Amino acid sequence: MLDIINVEKTFNPGTINEKKALNGINLHLDEGDFVTVIGGNGAGKSTMLNMIAGVYPVDCGSIVVDGVDVTRLPEYKRAKYLGRVFQDPMTGTAADMQIEENLALAARRGKKRSLRIGITAKERKEYKELLKILDLGLENRLTAKVGLLSGGQRQALTLLMATLKKPKLLLLDEHTAALDPKTAKKVLDITEEIVARDNLITVMITHNMADAIRVGNRLIMMHEGRIVVDVKGEEKKKLTIEQLLQMFEESSGSQFTSDKVMLSK
Amino acid sequence: MEIFSQLFNALPGSISQGLIWGIMAIGVYLTYRILDIPDLTVDGSFATGGAVAVVLILNGCNLWLAMLLAFIAGLLAGAITGLLHTLMGIPPILAGILTQLALYSINLKIMGKANQSVNVNQTDLLVSLRWVKEFALHNPLITVGIVLAILIGLLYWFFGTEMGCAIRATGANLNMSRAQGINTNFNKVLGIMLSNGLVAFSGAFLAQYQGFADVKMGQGAIVIGLAAVIIGEALFGKIFKNFALRLLSVALGSIIYYIVVQAVITMGLDANLLKLLSATIVAIFLAIPYWKRQYAQNHIKKGGKVNA
């Protein structure tokens, strides 16, 4: 379960660069919810995700994950509840470390790190099996440095890391945006597979309207730090891009403008 | 030919010094390479290690206990730098410089004066330059060599544990580490502490080896440490991939540094110019990777398909 209650965030308050990024966000997600998030540049999508993850503190409001108020917890403590995949493939993995070492770090998310060995033989076997699911040939390269992998391979690995210890909430911040269309599709397929397998509550930001409509059971659209469109269930399944744009114009009172989104529809 | 025989005569001394500084250089490697934080505390903590050991030994402390306490003094010095950086938001280089400056006063207070000698004829010591040519177990080559091997073994084990992996991850990718629940600030402090512990330990050896601790004995230590790291990587980087071997290559880098220094001095270089020479060599080696990138950028191959 996730509850975002009246969260506000302003960057650089009191300066010429003041930017109201989140303007009173309220969102409730139940078990098994998979919500896709779209919106123009500066709509507050990434800020919302970063607020949940604790990258910056909120100005006001609260964030509750699975019944635990995490609003005041530092980023590394919230990590216990969260799996995250970032837009930049470089962000989610440590390039200088081996594939298996990256996985072993992720396997210990939320646990105390002691003087026990960092990766056991039993784990290696498990990782090999898990990497097979990705079908990217990584299962035979456990000791390869992650820096040698392609962007798509790194994103798939990050996804595996994010879900290795089943998170209460999976946060995907345009995690296919930096990939070529074929790889992006592959990573999205793996995402859907893992989310369905583990029945994860998922928030996925995307700039691809078709994906946003097709994937998940709920869709929200953001504009100027607010959620302006919220579509669920049957209504979402029947949604078309044209309808979506119209709903956006009606509720926000402005044209939907984002080249990136429009070009990829 | 005389130069060669002179050099050969000086070789055991150079290697001993190289081994002692090798421990220090491994400390520098931990911050500079693993944590990706250039830590300048070492110039101060190296002398702290020497000062603590010498004063304790003069007061009749057990030699190995004195080494351990010097190591702990280094841990504390590193903790100060780490906390200045993580708790007070001071950039790491500046945090190191501040601690280093503060340590100058502390080192003076520990010794009570700028220079404190410890005579091997009057006091038992672990190592001394008087013994470098003796065929005996207390020859510094053997004593320091064994200690260095044990240290490399311990570090290899530690950086393979969950805790050690977390420090490596912190140095490799801060965002990823936090997303995986690693307290990056804690690990930075831990890494800087461990580094300075080793540096002080090395200082404790050197003070005994040369028969005195001096408040200035760590001046420029960071440059020697970096030189050892860089020489080790340049010569053995391609063949030594394993972590323990990388640490070994840093120690070998340190030994080679001291042999080269001995060689240029034997050939008649003014010893006063030594630090200038060291700084120049390190500057050039630090610049090489940058120059390589620049060269690649300015020499992009022509050809290739248009509209590929």
In short:
Chain A is α/β, with parallel strands linked by helices and 265 residues long. Chain A is built from 10 helices and 10 strands.
Please characterize this protein's 3D structure.
The complex is a heterodimer of chains A (265) and B (308). By secondary structure, chain A is of the alpha/beta class. Chain A has 2 domains: 1-81 and 167-265, P-loop containing nucleotide triphosphate hydrolases (Rossmann fold, 3-Layer(aba) Sandwich); 90-166, no CATH class. Chain A has 10 helices and 10 strands. Chain A has a 6-stranded mixed β-sheet, sandwiched between helices. In chain A, strand 9 and strand 10 (226-232) form a beta hairpin. In chain A, helix 5 runs parallel beside helix 6 (181-198). The radius of gyration of chain A is 19 Å and the shape is globular. In chain A, 46% of the residues are buried. Chain B is an all-alpha fold. Chain B has one domain (2-119, 136-298): ABC transporter involved in vitamin B12 uptake, BtuC (Orthogonal Bundle), CATH 1.10.3470. Chain B has helices spanning 2-35, 42-58, 63-86, 92-111, 140-158, 162-172, 174-179, 184-210, 221-236, 243-266, 274-298, and strands at 115-117, 212-214. Chain B has a two-stranded antiparallel ribbon with strand order 1-2. In chain B, helix 1 (2-35) runs antiparallel to helix 10 and helix 2 (42-58) packs parallel to helix 4. Chain B is globular, with a radius of gyration of 21 Å. Chain B starts with a helix and ends in a 10-residue tail after the last helix. The model of chain B has no long low-confidence stretch (mean pLDDT 93). The interface between A and B is medium-sized, with 35 and 22 residues.
